[in-house]
Every structure is written in structure tokens, then in C-alpha cells.
Design brief:
By secondary structure, this protein is α/β, with parallel strands linked by helices. It contains 15 helices and 9 strands. The chain has one domain: TIM Barrel (Alpha-Beta Barrel). The protein is 46% helix and 14% strand. Strands 1-2-3-4-5 form a 5-stranded parallel sheet. The protein has a 4-stranded parallel sheet with strand order 6-7-8-9. α8 packs parallel to α9. The longest helix has 17 residues. Bound molecules: hypoxanthine and zinc ion.
């Protein structure tokens, strides 16, 4: 694939700070750990294995300085890929459960972003399987900073562990406080999970790939201009799709569903944003014109968070 993909300005809308820690960065933080250890931990047999690995990484992020280093390295990596705008997801749900000082962590990562060339906004994520009360704490944290650079509120974790309807009041509160709803849905649960999210006002869907099983939903997403944040390597690595050839990105695209390509947890899935575009080209036949359209989408759907 031509070098243009490396140099064209791009936006990254779905990347988890905690999942961006490359083995070398984690080794900087944890004495005695080797890159081989980390690489082994980053291999997962299935989605549950991925969640275990994610918990393991997060367990090493003990203080604001650790998160700041993670942010510095991620921002260096994004800048090197010509990512000029990024919405970075922070697992505030996990921080609060671990009784960490989420405000100090947030200040530390914002400080790193201020030193970067990348224009950064933040998405704050709650953990589905921990329920609505814990998620409301996360939404409150975000709402207190919604005039700042936190633009979105999401839910992640085990999609099968709690339906989106649990979060009706939390979502309403987040919306009233100026946050856009960007939940993970339709990743490991079917199209009904995406329906639930859009009915509750989701502006974008994290993954959403199971929409492919429901033509009515695909039309709805197209007609309401609700994009899917598609993360191909992630879906292969977690077993959300059986294999690369089964990934529905092309079918979603052909159906007119708005799509943005993203890296999700790039270190854990051994990918980069540029690589995700290259995979779309090499495995799904996206032409240069189509890829340029997806790059345009990355900026276009960043702006949906700024819509009233
Ligand atoms: N899905 C659910 N939870 C997550 C993910 C994901 O892709 N990445 C980090 N936490
Ligand atoms: Zn994600």
C-alpha cells in the first residue's frame, strides 16, 4: 500500500489508553518484566481471555505518572502516524473500582496531551458488568469535566454481562450534561444490543459489527448517520469474528452504514491505526478513493460529538 496512508492526516476515535501500552512501555514501568512476558500476555484465545489481559495491564497502572507515561507513548505513536485528532478512552470505571484518584490521573494525562501535537479529547468509559450505580459514578466524573476536554461517555467490558437498558438513567444524565454517548455494542452480542444503544441515544457505536445481521438496523444507522467504530484486528484477536475473512466491514460498508476505522487496543492487538487501513485495502478490497473516504469519515464523525 502506498505511503500516502502513513502521511495523510487521520483521526482516531476509538483507542483505549490502557490497551495502548506497548510491551516496551510496560517494561519501563514494571521492573523485572520482559517484553516476551508481555507479548505472551497479549495473546488471547477468546474475549474472556482478552478481558483478563486488559485487567492484567491495568493492574500495573498504579499512579498518575504511570498513566502519564502511557499517554506520552501513545501520543508519540499517534503523531508519528499523522493522527492529528484523537479521542482517547479512559477506563474511569476501573479507576474508581480500584479506589484510584481518577481526578489526579485525568490531570496527568491531560498534561501530557497539552505537550503533544495531537489535538486530544477524552471519552470516559464505565464497565458494563459492574452495573448502573458504578456507571453513574463514572458519568458524574465526566459531567463535572464536560466543559473541559471530555466529550463522550461509553460503556465497555463484557457486553453479555449487562444489557444497555440497565444504563437508561445513566445515559440520560450523561446526555443532559453535554456528553455524547459512544457505547461499545454489537461486538460480542447481536444486533439487538446495537438497537438498544441507538434507542437510548448513542451517537456512535463502538464496534457494532453485528448490525450486519439485521438489514433494518443497517438502514437505520445509515439513515440516522450513526457510524460504527470498526476495529478489525481487535475483532479477530478477541474472537468476535471467527477469522479475518469473516469480518463484516465490507458488507457493512456496501450497505451504506457509516464506518470509521480504529485501533481499539493497538498494543494488545499488535496493530496501529495505519495498519487497520492497510488491512481494509489488502483483505477487503477498499480502493484508495474508498480509503480516503474513510479517512474523511474519521474527522466527520469526530464532529458528531460536538453536535447539540
Ligand atoms: N470491548 C470491550 N471492552 C473493552 C474493549 C473492547 O473492545 N477494549 C477495552 N475494553
Ligand atoms: Zn474498545
Amino acid at each position: 500500500m502506498g505511503g500516502w496512508l502513513e502521511t495523510v492526516p487521520k483521526a482516531e476515535l476509538h483507542v483505549h489508553l490502557e490497551g495502548s501500552l506497548r510491551p516496551a512501555t510496560l517494561c519501563e514501568l514494571v521492573p523485572g518484566l520482559t517484553e516476551e512476558d508481555v507479548t505472551a500476555r497479549y495473546r488471547h484465545a477468546d474475549f474472556a481471555g482478552f478481558i483478563d489481559s486488559f485487567k492484567w495491564v491495568v493492574g500495573h497502572l498504579k499512579e498518575p505518572g504511570h498513566f502519564a507515561l502511557a499517554a506520552r507513548r501513545l501520543l508519540e505513536e499517534l503523531a508519528a502516524q499523522r493522527v492529528t485528532y484523537a479521542e482517547i478512552t479512559l477506563s474511569v470505571g476501573v479507576m474508581l473500582l480500584r479506589k484510584q484518584d481518577a481526578a489526579a490521573i485525568y490531570d496527568a494525562v491531560v498534561g501530557e496531551a497539552a505537550r503533544s501535537k495531537v489535538d486530544v479529547r477524552w471519552v470516559v468509559d464505565a464497565v458494563r458488568q459492574w452495573g448502573a450505580e458504578a456507571a453513574m459514578e463514572v458519568a458524574r466524573f465526566a459531567a463535572e469535566r464536560s466543559t473541559d476536554r471530555i466529550v463522550g461517555f461509553g460503556i465497555g467490558g463484557d457486553e453479555a454481562g449487562g444489557p444497555v437498558e440497565w444504563f437508561r438513567d445513566v445515559f440520560a444524565f450523561a446526555r443532559e450534561n453535554g456528553l455524547a454517548l459512544v457505547p461499545h455494542a454489537g461486538e460480542t452480542v447481536g444486533a439487538e444490543s446495537v438497537w438498544g444503544a441507538v434507542k437510548l441515544g448513542a451517537r456512535r457505536i463502538g464496534h457494532g459489527i453485528r448490525a450486519v445481521d439485521d438489514p433494518t438496523l443497517m438502514h437505520y444507522l445509515r439513515d440516522h448517520d450513526i457510524p460504527l467504530e470498526v476495529c478489525i484486528s481487535s475483532n479477530v484477536a478477541t474472537g468476535a469474528v471467527a477469522g479475518l475473512a469473516d469480518h463484516p466491514v465490507r458488507r457493512l460498508y456496501e450497505a451504506g452504514v457509516p464506518i470509521v476505522l480504529n485501533s481499539d487496543d493497538p498494543a494488545m492487538f499488535n496493530t496501529t491505526l495505519t495498519r487497520e487501513y492497510e488491512i481494509a485495502a489488502s483483505h477487503f478490497g477498499f480502493s484508495e478513493d474508498e480509503l480516503r473516504g474513510l479517512v474523511d469519515n474519521s474527522f466527520r464523525y469526530a464532529r458528531v460529538l460536538n453536535r447539540p
